[in-house]
Design a protein that fits this description.
The chain has 209 residues and is α/β, with parallel strands linked by helices. It has five helices and eight strands.
């Protein structure tokens, strides 16, 4: 039996602040060149650093593609590794976006849970990718930074009941090239799909008995 084709959506961010070129979008474009495995349709989007656009765009992407997984990629000026974020936070958004806007409530979803975890076990993904001995170090984080990255992640986790992931990359050349980041994203997302499929098989087995 042929495996059904699955959609995976991957987003990077547009320029903001001192990031005139956003490493996250460059890395996502590299991933697009490499592609994912054969049964996956990869859709990539550049997201502007604007709260209101994120709130409109994320649900629209889920509706349009019904993806198996959405992976958001963002840049962190403090990062020196490729970082897998475990969870998104609802409250504490005070930083102004590119439109000089920040949510009046300082939260993503009023009345939503304080924190939502990804259904993907990031520790497992990190271990597996590290075992591939790529020339990129992968680490784990529980704080995506309370700016557009965290805001996007929470919005997506809320929308998808946890079927989202977030990856922080360092700025280009500090220390990785675009090609290295693209290859790392390819490996990370393929492991995420694998982990997701195995956890779903387990759930399905439990339903059948």
């Amino acid at each position: 039996m042929e495996k059904p084709r699955r959609a995976v959506v991957v987003t990077g961010f547009g320029p903001f602040g001192e990031h005139a070129v956003n490493a996250s979008w460059i890395a996502v474009q590299e991933l697009e060149k490499l592609g994912l495995r054969d049964d996956v349709d990869l859709h990539v989007y550049e997201i502007p650093v604007e709260y209101q656009t994120v709130q409109r765009l994320i649900p629209a992407l889920w509706k349009k593609h019904s993806p198996q997984l959405v992976v958001h990629v963002g840049v962190s000026g403090m990062a020196t590794t490729v970082t897998l974020e475990k969870c998104g936070h609802n409250v504490g958004y005070k930083g102004l976006d590119n439109c000089r806007f920040c949510p009046g409530s300082q939260c993503c979803v009023e009345g939503g849970p304080e924190c939502i975890d990804s259904v993907i076990d990031m520790d497992t993904v990190c271990k597996r990718v590290s075992a591939l001995e790529l020339d990129v170090t992968v680490t784990i984080s529980k704080d995506a930074g309370r700016y557009l990255c965290d805001f996007t992640y929470y919005t997506s986790l809320y929308q998808s009941r946890g079927r989202s992931a977030f990856v922080h990359v360092p700025p280009l050349g500090k220390p990785y090239t675009a090609e290295q980041l693209g290859r790392a994203l390819q490996a990370i997302i393929e492991e995420m799909l694998d982990v997701l499929e195995h956890s779903e098989e387990k759930i399905n087995c439990q339903h059948e008995h």
